[in-house]
Write a structure and sequence with these properties.
The complex is a heterodimer. Chain A is of the alpha/beta class. Chain A has 16 helices and 15 strands. Chain A has two domains: 119 residues, Aspartate Aminotransferase, domain 1 (Alpha-Beta Complex); 236 residues, Type I PLP-dependent aspartate aminotransferase-like (Major domain) (Aspartate Aminotransferase, domain 2, 3-Layer(aba) Sandwich). Classes of the chains: A alpha/beta, B alpha/beta. Chain A: Homodimer. Chain A: It comes from Cicer arietinum.
């Protein structure tokens, strides 16, 4: 498995990719007006698969489009899967791509408690004025308490800077932008593998990253020794991106004992842990249990960054609700950090969207609704666990090869890393109309008990008959 | 509440393009516009600034003096250097048209220009239709790229078609322009963060490619935009009855502001203020660039508890029939010995 790979994707000009607009590309006279002439883009596009930019020189003062030579971007590896699924006309198709919870009937699920909260909000007739740059105060308070526990000393001592962000992605981006601006030269260590968009976020924020070993294909489990080694060998003061629970895409989490050791080495090297918490409550079914790793690090007195998302655990996907938290060593530095997070957010989107934040604040702030939420979350996590078990039962009873499939049960959260390689994953799609990401990840949230047998057949076929 | 696509609500974007480019715009029919839902006006400008940096890395953005403060931040954080062009003429509290035209002429061919489509923020000073035609013509001759920030369509004059006039003039002249739209003010959706970024391309194929690249910029910023506000916009604009109701309501909002302008000016003149105040009614939109100095503004705050930005910009939306007399009096007090 590959180890450290340093990379920064940059959009520098490479001579071979430059594109000059010559007169020869102008097919005929330029005529503008109500029937503008169109230029053919055939043959001009010399680097459709390249991610570097083309430099366009305006040698002539004519209104040639500035977009000549802009290549078609590749489809997103995760979100593009759903698009492909939609286009498939087979009636046995199954979408195990994006991590969005589905009911047993494979329908999207709006939590009852969310509907209740929205009705309350509508009745109250709240206005739509701008939130402050840092977001809804009631939400920020609720989210920090949910993460750390309301009686956490860090909160009581006002050492937590919380800024509402655009779900997990937006919160990670604010964290990344903070790193780029105030920790020049610092790198981020990300797990191999990790959520696809992590690399994009750090690339676009111009924060260099390298990888720490995480997934061991031999055991389909955690390469703990490799992980510790790589964290240890990183330069002091590196940011280490950790998944708080329900690692995406593998579903493989460190045990509590392993978390202690990870905390040890992070502390030894003066690294700064950066947690991505996208599944609190969704992994085990318990909000507190799923926050244990973050709370451990904070209790050790470390300064920690944490990005949160309410996409999955409250089903608020499209409302884009999340937060970036920075737990620092003093209230004074927390205040300064918060002010700078605001300065980064302002030129990105000015202030965050209000609707989803209000939903969260209302639910967490109303005991009856909060209890309802916990129950619904347990239900969702429970369905996933059942489906895991059913899948495992199906595969292990059908597969006579003696292969150990128990890793399916050891993994946790929405996803399972099947261990299938790209060709095998392609077979899943091409032959069986099962959509998943090319890294072998399936979203159990998109699986019903009814489809377990079919999926088991597909996995066994792809694993044994395709290389 | 499933994720929207990275480009946002298709319906909302469609309706936004009709509003800006015209219901029967050939550019819409020919699918030449690359457009994505954005996080209100800020987010639309930020996507464009990032796009500009990525695909035209050695360019700058020309911004008017003055402009909305956050424009500076947006292009700076995107790594695009800023240059300025003359805009506001303090002596007349109006447009420095000859300065503006000179700066357009003197900028290197093919420069990127940021223009406020209507209701310039913070001055409230807009070019006349004739002036817009000359600006468009001169920019065309220089091959400049016009990027419009339209945060007040409908809110300025009360008529969205009229407020889009500058854009239509540029389109008629064959400019391939860019546009940031916001629904914060004209639909009062401020906190919902609803807007749209569009770029007019040469043809459909280019538009598809450009849109894909805009999505690639959005994905590592926020993945996909928020749903709620977009649903409100597409529902309103997509339903003829609701759209008619909206047009009425936006006119009510605009008329109230226009009425306040007239009343404020009248009050000042009746108080016998020695200074000229016709710029209050000449200017348009939410803001009035009063011409007051920072020191005068400080006096307004300290002595009269009236809050405004120190550049003398008054948000007319904060005035009503109940307080306009008080404000006129206060302004007169701090300016009469000027």
């Amino acid at each position: 498995m590959a180890s450290s790979v340093l990379s920064v994707a940059s959009y520098t000009i490479s001579p071979s990719a430059s594109l000059w607009v010559h007169d020869s590309h102008n097919k005929g006279k330029l005529k503008f007006g109500s029937n503008g002439l169109r230029f053919s883009t055939e043959g001009i596009n010399t680097f459709s698969n390249s991610r570097s930019s083309g430099r366009i020189s305006m040698a002539v003062a004519v209104n040639v489009s500035r977009f000549e030579g802009i290549p078609m971007a590749p489809p997103d590896p995760i979100l593009g899967v759903s698009e492909a699924f939609k286009a498939d006309t087979s009636n046995v198709k199954l979408n195990l791509g994006v991590g969005a919870y589905r009911t047993e009937e494979l329908q999207p699920y709006v939590l009852n408690v969310v509907k209740k909260a929205e009705n309350l909000m509508l009745e109250r007739g709240e206005n739509k004025e701008y939130l402050p740059i840092e977001g809804l105060a009631a939400f920020n308070k609720a989210t920090a308490e949910l993460l750390l526990g309301a009686d956490n000393p860090a909160i009581k001592q006002q050492r937590v800077a919380t800024v509402q962000g655009l779900s997990g992605t937006g919160s990670l981006r604010l964290g990344a932008a903070l790193i780029e601006r105030y920790f020049p030269g610092a790198k981020v260590l990300i797990s191999n593998p990790t959520w696809g968009n992590h690399k994009n976020i750090f690339n676009d924020a111009r924060v260099p990253w390298s990888e720490y070993r995480y997934y061991d294909p031999k055991t389909v489990g955690l390469d703990f020794e490799g992980m510790i080694e790589d964290i240890k060998s990183a330069p002091e003061g590196t940011f280490v991106l950790l998944h708080g629970c329900a690692h995406n895409p593998t579903g493989i989490d460190p045990t509590p004992e392993q978390w202690e050791k990870i905390a040890d080495v992070v502390q030894q090297k003066n690294h700064i842990p950066f947690f991505d918490v996208a599944y609190q409550g969704f992994a085990s079914g318990s909000l507190d249990e799923d926050a244990a790793s973050v709370r451990l690090f904070v209790s050790r007195g470390m300064e920690v960054l944490v990005a949160q998302s309410y996409s999955k655990n409250l089903g608020l996907y499209a409302e884009r609700v999340g937060a970036i938290n920075v737990i620092s060593s003093s209230p004074e530095s927390a205040a300064r950090v918060k002010s700078q997070l605001k300065r980064l957010a302002r030129p990105m989107y000015s202030n965050p969207p209000v609707h989803g934040a209000r939903i969260v604040a209302n639910i967490v702030g109303t005991p009856a609704l909060f209890d309802e939420w916990k129950a619904e979350m347990e239900m969702m996590a429970g369905r996933i666990k059942n489906v895991r078990q059913a899948l495992y039962d199906s595969i292990s009873s059908k597969d006579k090869s003696g292969k150990d499939w128990s890793f399916i049960l050891k993994q946790i959260g929405m996803f399972s890393f099947t261990g299938l390689n790209k060709n095998q994953s392609d077979n899943m799609t091409n032959k069986w109309h099962i959509y998943m990401t090319k890294d072998g990840r399936i979203s159990l949230a998109g699986l019903s008990l009814a489809k377990c047998e079919y999926l088991a057949d597909a996995i066994i076929d792809s694993y044994h008959n395709v290389s | 509440m499933e994720y929207l696509p990275m480009g946002g609500s298709i319906k909302m974007v469609e309706e936004s393009l009709k509003l800006a480019y015209g219901d029967n715009s050939e550019f819409i029919n020919d699918k030449r516009i690359a457009a994505v839902q954005a996080l209100s006006g800020t987010g639309a400008c930020r996507l464009f600034a990032a796009f500009q940096q990525r695909f035209h890395p050695n360019t700058q953005i020309y911004i008017p003096v003055p402009t909305w403060a956050n424009h500076h931040n947006i292009w700076r954080d995107s790594g695009v250097p800023l240059k300025t062009f003359r805009y506001y003429h303090p002596e007349s509290r109006g447009l420095d048209f000859s300065g503006l035209m000179d700066d357009i002429k003197n900028a290197p061919d093919g420069s990127f220009f940021l223009l406020h489509a209507c209701a310039h923020n913070p001055t409230g000073v807009d070019p006349s239709e004739e002036q817009w035609r000359e600006i468009s013509s001169q920019m065309k001759a220089k091959g400049h790229f016009p990027f419009f920030d339209m945060a007040y369509q409908g809110f300025a004059s009360g008529n969205p078609e009229r407020d889009a006039k500058a854009i239509r003039i540029f389109l008629d002249d064959g400019h391939l322009l860019g546009l940031a739209q916001s629904y914060a003010k004209n639909m009062g959706l401020y906190g919902q963060r609803v807007g749209c970024l569009s770029l007019l391309c040469e043809d459909e194929k280019q538009a598809v490619a450009v849109k894909s690249q805009l999505q690639l910029i959005a994905r590592p910023m926020y993945s996909n935009p928020p749903l709620h506000g977009a649903l409100v916009v597409s529902t309103v604009l997509g339903d003829p009855e609701l759209k008619t109701l909206w047009l009425k309501e936006v006119k009510v909002m605009a008329d109230r502001i226009i009425g306040m302008r007239a009343t404020l000016r009248e009050n000042l003149e009746n108080l016998g203020s020695p200074l000229p105040w016709q710029h209050i009614t000449n200017q348009i939109g939410m803001f009035c660039y009063s011409g007051m100095t920072p020191e005068q503004v400080d006096r307004l705050t300290n002595e009269f508890h009236i809050y405004m930005t120190r550049n003398g910009r008054i948000s007319m939306a904060g005035l009503n029939t109940g307080n306009v007399g008080y404000v006129a009096n206060a302004i007169n007090e701090v300016t009469k010995s000027a």
